[in-house]
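Collaborator request log, item 7. Partner lab (contact: R.S.) asked for a structural prediction of XdhC family protein to inform their binding assays.
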Amino acid sequence: MESIDLLVLRTTRDWLAAGHRTLLATVARTWGSSPRPVGSMMALRSDGRVVGSVSGGCIEDDLIHRYTNAYGGPGMPGGMPQVVRFGVSADEAHRFGLPCGGTLELVLEFAPSLPHLEQLLADLDGGNLVRRGLDLRSGETNLTATTTPELFSFDGRHMLSTLGPGYRLLLIGAGALAEYLATMALFNGFSVSLCDPRPEYTAGWNVAGVNHLAGMPDDVVRAFAPDLRSAIVAVSHDPKLDDLALLEALHSPAFYIGAIGSRRNSQLRRERLIEHFGESEASLQRLHGPIGIYIGSKTPAEIAVSVMAEILAAKNDVTLPGAVSVTRAKEAEQLARSL
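Returned to partner:
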C-alpha cells in the first residue's frame, strides 16, 4: 500500500488524463487543534468523487457541495488557486467537525497541470526527493530535486512541500514478528525490505509486497543506503546477524534503529558494541532496545503493534513519555511487587 500523498497525486493525474475536471486541495495552515496536519492533500473530481482527506469529513462534504455537480451544484470552477478558511468561529468549528478552537486554511488548485503531475510522479517513482513549489498569484508550479527533506511551508503567496520518496523499513530476520511488522508497515505506507541469509527462516515467508534482499545483513544495510525516511529493525535474535547490521545502521541517518530482545539481552548487546566495535554510550543513544512501547504484549502480533507505534512516533517526531518505555515500565512493575 503506497502513501496517501502518492495515492492522491496519482489519482489526480489519472482523473486529469481521463478528461475530468479535478481540484487539488492542500492543508496550508492550522491554528489550534486540527484533524489533519499541514501538507495533507485531497483530490476532488467534478462529479463529487474524493480521494485523500483534509479533515474528518465535514469539510470534504462542504467542498463537494461548493465545487461539484454531485448535488446539483455549479460544478468545478477554473481559474487561479485560492485560499479558503474553515472553523474561524465556534459555530463553524462545530459545523465542520473541527476540534474546539480549531481553524485551518486550504489551498485549492482548480486547474492542476497534467504534465507537471506526470513529471512529479515520474521523479517520485524514480526514488527521488522533490520540492514542489506553487505561486498562488501566478498559478505557476515548479519542481526542484533535493536531498534534504524540508518542513511544509506557506506564507500566503508561496506554498512549498517536499515529497517522496516514501518511508522505508528494512527488517533483519524473518519470522512471525517480522511478518506482522511488515504487514503493519505496508498498511502505513512504508515500502518494506527483508534480509535473512537463513533459508530455513525465509522459506515460509508469506507476506506479499516485501522486497527480499540477498546477502549478509551488514552488506545489505550498506547497499540499502538508509536515509532520513528509513527505519531499520533487527529481529533475528542472532547476534551475528543483528549486531553487524546495527553497526552499519548506527552510522546512517536512519530515523529509527531498533533491535528485539529482553532488557538483559539489550544491555549485553550494548556492552558488546562498546567493547568489541568501538561504539560508545553516546553513539548508542539512537539504538532502541528493547523495542516497542510497553503494552504488556506477549504475542508476536501484539509486540509488532508496540514496535510499529514506536516507529510511527519517531517518524512523526513525537517524544514518548518515559512511562511507556519497556525498560522503565518493567522496572516500575518489579519495584511495585517488591513493596
